[in-house]
Design a protein that fits this description.
384 residues; alpha/beta; VC0802-like; Rossmann fold; seven-stranded mixed sheet; 32% helix; binds S-adenosyl-L-homocysteine; SAM-dependent_MTases_sf; DNA_methylase_N6_adenine_CS
Amino acid sequence: MKEKFNLIATAAAGLEAVVGREVRDLGIDCQVENGRVRFSGDVKTIIQTNLWLRSADRIKIVVGTFPAKTFEELFQGVFALDWENYLPLGAKFPISKAKCVKSKLHNEPSVQAISKKAVVKKLQKHYARPEGVPLQENGAEFKIEVSILKDLVTVMIDTSGSSLFKRGYRTEKGGAPIKENMAAAILLLSNWYPDKPLIDPTCGSGTFCIEAAMIGMKMAPGLNRSFAFEDWNWVDKDLVRQLRAEALSQIDQDIQLDISGSDLDARLVEIAKKNAEEAGVADQIHFKQMRLQDLHTEKINGVIISNPPYGERLLDDDAVTQLYQEMGQTFAPLKTWSKFILTSDEAFEAKYGSQADKKRKLYNGTLKVDLYQYFGQRVKRQLD
Ligand code: SAH
C-alpha cells in the first residue's frame, strides 16, 4: 500500500497554532492554516498523531486535490485518485461528509453521490469486478470526506473514527462540559506548567483538572480509546501495539502534581472523581464540593482556570453578574496567581472588575467565547 501520506490535523478556530505546536513537538514539520495543520508522514505518523495530539479534532489523509466546476470534472477527479492504495476489496467507504463553500458545485448530496460512484467505478476496475454488480462493503470502514472550496476539491479519509476530544474517560458529563481537546488547548496556551499549582473552582465534570493531570504525567490522550485506522489491513498491528506500549511506559507515575477542582454541585464533584479514576489520574487531583466564593489559598504562583456558567446556558443574567463580581473579589487577593477565564459574556471584565491582560477568541462548539487572561505578578526574590 502507501508509504507516505499527506495528512491534516483539524483544529477548532483559534486553536490551529496550538495544534501546530503539538505536531512540531512530536518532531513533525507542519504548516498551520485556517482550521487545520498540514504535515506528511508514514503509518507511524498517523498512529502517533492520533495517540498524542491533545488539542486536535481529527487526523485525516488527503487522498488528492483537484479543480472541478462540473459533476463530470468531479467524477473524473475522484476516479483518477489512487483509491486502490487505501481501500481493500470489501472495505466500507461511505462518503460521510461533503462540504461546498463558494463553489460552482454546491449541492452537497449530489457531490456525495457522484464521488461515491467514482470510487466504486475505480475499485471495480482495479479489482476486476463486473460494473453492474455492487461492491460488497462488509469490511473495515474508511470514511471519505469531500470538501470543495472555491472550486478546488479536497478528498480525504478520516483516520480517527470518533473525534479526538473523545478520550474515553468521560462517564457522565455535567450540564455544559467543555470539550477535552479545548480544555487541553487552553492549558497548553496558559502559563501553567506541571510544577505550578492549578485550581479549577468551577470544575464541573473535571475536564481541566483531568487534562492537566494527563499533561503533567505525560499520558497520551488516546491511550484509552480506539481509532478507525486500527481496523485497516495495511496498518501494522504490531506497530500500533508497540507505540501504545511506548506511550504507556512514558507515563510518569512518580510526579507529584498540585491540581484541585471544586464545584458548587456535589453531584458533579462525584462525576469528576469518577472521570479522573477512569482516566487513571485520580491520585493527582483533589476534588471537593465548594463555592468558588470560598476559595482561599496561601500558595503562590499558581494558575486558576475556570469555565464559569454563562448567561444563556446555565444561569440568569443577574445571577451571572453577581457570580462574576464575587469571582473578581475572591481572586483579587491571589496576586501572584494567573487566571484564565472562559466565558461568552462580553461584559465579563466589567462584572469581574478588572481588565484582562490578554483576550483570545475561541469557539466552544459553535458558541463564540473569550478566554480572559490575567497574568500573576511575579514574586520578587528576597535578597539577603
Ligand atoms: N468545565 C466544566 C464545566 C463548567 S460549567 C466541565 O468540563 O464539566 C460551570 C460550572 O460552574 C457548573 O458545574 C456549576 O455547577 C459551577 N458553578 C456555578 N456557580 C458556582 C459557584 N458559585 N461556585 C462554584 N461552582 C459554581
